[in-house]
Design a protein that fits this description.
The chain is built from 15 helices and 18 strands. It is of the alpha/beta class.
Length: 468
């Protein structure tokens, strides 16, 4: 049986901390340990020592992960309030994120990589077995801190690796608490949460004792992570965002799909890598689509995530709010029209009005790049080929969707999209059992399902002669 006690790497002993801000007020409400890069050697060294025992007992790992899921659910109220306080999302969405976190721990606890025989006609018995990689570094962004932490740590731990996990400095607190909660079910040093500011993440990604780096974030940072990992020839998994397009077909029922389409773009204040970032509507229905989405934007309740009536919280941080404002202002300068919103809200905190942009030039950055906020451009198209070409004309390739009444026709169109996942009449809904991967600049490697587990393992082949 694997036993031990949790560890939380920090610099509390020397008082080094950094401020964590509440995006609903813009004010600091707590501090987090600011681990220094030169302290990572000891952290990674302990993770390597813990790996020697953790990798040996698959049954004990499964039991530990199931216990960790139970502990996560038991701490749900405390986790949810802290997550909303530092991230900004409505409390109901924080509870949903915690439920998903616990579900993922249970899912990977039940997956068991089986040996696989090789039959090739030779008088040799060959078998593929699976071995863990060693210490894994998980670097997590601020939009879904707990859900993305579990997406990385659950398969890595289930595979027999140890994990050093670094959350974003914008949202370190709930992840810190989650690490403490999960670690009550784990041996010492199997999971370590390190919080701090750059260059801590860069040092972790390039640490020679790390055998796999799994990162979610921006394309420029992802490139830097990959370059850092290359020095040690470690494995790297990158999820680098998207610019997902939604194509509406001529037979779409606008009112029937408007709510789903709106929230596919605006959930979590639009801060979702696979959110709808662009809508392409047939010219005949264009005005109806713009008006339906604008009406929903104008009536959405924006406020603190702790307020039960809030539907849309603040943008998480000042740099991201500035990006949203810049892209919106550029679109309006390019000739776009704000059918709803178009501006920051005049109140404390990082609030931006839900914005629907019409008549947007296709070259405007809000169309060509990932705005990652509560702003949605709607563009008309003349022919379906034109719409598909425009949807695919991006450096990203994470997801896309097609909306219409004729499902067979919609599926034919969806099959033409250049992305990792295509949905019909919905968007950004993922099963724990399915692979999640992008193409082009949206990433490298696969997360989710059995693919996520095997991404944390390496094949080991044993050959032996057949019995005489």
């Amino acid at each position: 049986m694997l036993t031990g006690r949790p560890r939380q790497a920090s610099s509390d002993t020397v008082g080094e901390r950094f401020a964590v801000l509440d995006p609903a007020t813009g004010e600091a409400f707590e501090g987090a340990p600011d681990l220094q890069p030169d302290e990572l050697d000891a952290v990674v060294g302990r993770a390597h020592e813990a790996w020697r025992n953790w990798r040996t007992d698959r049954s004990a790992r499964a039991t530990a992960l199931l216990a960790a899921a139970d502990a996560t659910e038991a701490a749900g109220a405390e986790l949810a309030s802290l997550l909303t306080r530092e991230q900004g999302k409505p409390l109901s969405e924080s509870y949903a994120e915690i439920a998903r976190t616990a579900a993922r721990l249970r899912y990977f606890a039940e997956l068991d990589p089986r040996p696989r025989p090789i039959t090739d006609g030779r008088p040799v018995r060959s078998e593929i077995r699976w071995r863990p990689l060693g210490p894994v570094a998980a670097i997590v962004p601020w939009n879904f801190p707990l859900q993305l932490a579990s997406a990385k740590l659950a398969p890595a731990l289930a595979a027999g690796n140890t994990v050093v996990l670094k959350p974003s400095p914008f949202t370190p607190l709930a992840t810190q608490l989650l690490g403490s909660v999960i670690s009550t079910a784990l041996p010492e040093d199997v999971l370590t949460i390190v919080t701090g500011q750059e260059p801590l993440g860069a040092r972790l990604a390039s640490h020679p004792g790390i055998r796999h780096v799994t990162f979610t974030g921006s394309v420029p940072t992802g490139r830097a992570v990959a370059a850092g990992v290359a020095a040690s020839l470690g494995r790297v998994t990158l999820e680098l965002g998207g610019n997902d397009a939604a194509i509406l077909l001529e037979d779409v029922d606008v009112e029937q799909i408007a709510d789903r389409l709106f929230w596919a773009a605006f959930r979590n204040c639009g801060q979702v890598c696979m959110a709808v970032k662009r809508v392409y509507a047939p010219a005949r229905l264009y005005s109806d689509v713009v008006e339906a989405l604008a009406q929903r934007a104008k009536t959405t309740v924006v406020g603190s995530g702790l307020d039960p009536g809030t539907q849309l919280g603040p943008v998480n941080n000042i740099p991201q709010l500035a990006r949203v404002e810049r892209y919106t202002a550029q679109a309006l300068a390019d000739g776009a029209r704000a059918a709803a919103g178009g501006h920051r809200l005049d109140r404390p905190g990082y609030f931006h009005a839900p914005t629907i942009l019409a008549d947007v030039p296709p070259h405007s950055p809000v169309v060509t790049d990932e705005q990652f906020g509560p702003v949605l451009p709607v563009l008309p198209y003349g022919s379906l080929d034109e719409a598909v070409e425009a949807a695919n004309d991006t450096g990203f390739g994470l997801g896309g969707s097609v909306w219409g009444t004729d499902l067979d026709r919609a599926e034919v169109v969806a099959d033409r999209l250049e992305c990792g996942t295509a949905w019909i009449n919905h968007h950004a809904e993922l099963s724990l059992a399915q692979p999640f991967a992008g193409i082009k600049e949206s990433g490298v490697g696969v997360a989710g399902g059995p693919w996520g587990l095997y991404g944390n393992l390496r094949p080991f082949v044993v050959h032996r002669p057949e019995e005489a």
